[in-house]
Amino acid sequence: MRLGKHIFGVGVMTGISRVFGFVRDMLIAHVFGAGRLSDVFLAAFKLPNLFRDLLGEGALSAIFIPMYTDKNKDENFAKNVFSWLMVVLLGITLLFEVFMPLVVWVLAPGFSDDPGKMQLTVQIARIMFWYVIFICGAAFLSAILNAFSKFLLVAFMPVLLNIMLIGALLLGAFFAQGTVLYIMAFTVVLSGIIQFGVLWQRIRSRHFGLRLIWPRWTPSIKSMFKRLGIGIIGNGFYQITIIIGTLVASFQNGAVSWLYYSDRIVQLPFALIGLAVGTVLMSSISNALAEKNMRSVYIQQNSSMRQSMMLIMPCMVGLFVLAEPVIRCLFQYGAWTAASTHAVAMAIMIQVLVLPAMMISQIYSKTLYASQDVRTPVKTSIISLAVASVIYLTAFHFIGYLAIPVGVVVSGYLKNYLLRRACKRRNLIHTEPRTIRAVFAFAVLAVVMGVGLWFIPIPNVWMLFIAIGVFAIIYLPLAYLINKKI
What we know:
Layout: H1 3-32, H2 36-57, H3 59-70, H4 75-107, H5 115-128, H6 131-147, H7 152-171, H8 177-205, H9 219-249, H10 255-290, H11 294-331, H12 338-351, H13 355-370, H14 375-399, H15 403-425, H16 433-454, H17 461-485
Helix pairs in contact: 1-7, 1-10, 2-3, 2-5, 2-6, 3-6, 3-9, 3-10, 4-5, 4-6, 5-8, 6-8, 7-8, 9-14, 10-11, 10-12, 10-13, 11-12, 11-13, 11-16, 11-17, 12-15, 13-15, 14-15, 16-17
């Protein structure tokens, strides 16, 4: 496999999806504002997205692909998993349709002060929850395609959702706001159906005999569901940690918003590079481990580490240096104040330091998942997130909202250390000296250029683009030559 080609392709699709997602959010703000109807849509949309995260994209792929690969891509195993997944998803959907009023009350108890708002949220949530069946089914089909090293179509699917929602919002210009809300809800479900249909057709075109069968409870299915449960626990703990951080920050006026925007900025380069690396490595290392080819595993790990760190180092340094100009150019309009810009920039300058650890942790965790070790990544996540929560609660009294990015950085490097130790203990990783030299060289080059960038005045958005462009034009060829030479 040409790792660089696949990582670049997935990264580009992720970037396109993020751009369309940003346009979608702008249109939602334009159509609904920041009031009653936007609250209803975002609260109702949060529920299927939560199940997509828990059951779909992350945990299911990380557990299914290694087992599927280890069984030599057995069609019967895939059919059985697919059938069980559909049964479980249908059961969950019917259960939530019945108890949706209680679910919405738990998620948004403040809506109960406005009975009309609560009732409307329940109606919209009941429509959108059918999206769970199709998007989680699509995630399973994506896992099969990824196992065969077919990444681009899968990476395009989130783009499709955002394009359809943008179309629905543009169509909404001809309707009342309340009607637009229902159009959006049905569009979400329709996008899930289309994503499922497109991926299903792609799999059928490969003459793959995937279809629904009568589910059989086999040892493999029992093992898969057990591992999936462990993965869901780890993801659930992550959601709890986010809630704790939000609760702590809520004691400082404006802190929740500052942290939301800083996290959105820092997560962007990780989404473009880190998630692409993780997606590609999941299937490639699973294939190598199934063939007991550890040399191939080590080559892929070192290659992806060099390539990802070559790209993430300038992102880290650039965001550290340009944090304030970036926020000022993006958000400092209308009610947004210079004080808010400075507060968000301070959070970015701290949190951005975790990017290298997050990037390398992707390599370690995907290697462990590929070896069918689900417990270790979940255990390390729980330990590191628990440490983060302790830092949130204790450091907030001294440094305020900045305790949250500090906790993110400390827990990120702790998680990285624990994952690396687990991989080394099982001889699942070997970092070559040339990889260490390359990463060090990338870091030095990025820091040297960052020092120069620090002294360039950025009075407007055009100067910001020029500074970023010059940084990239100088850094990327030099880093490429360093990587090639080493």
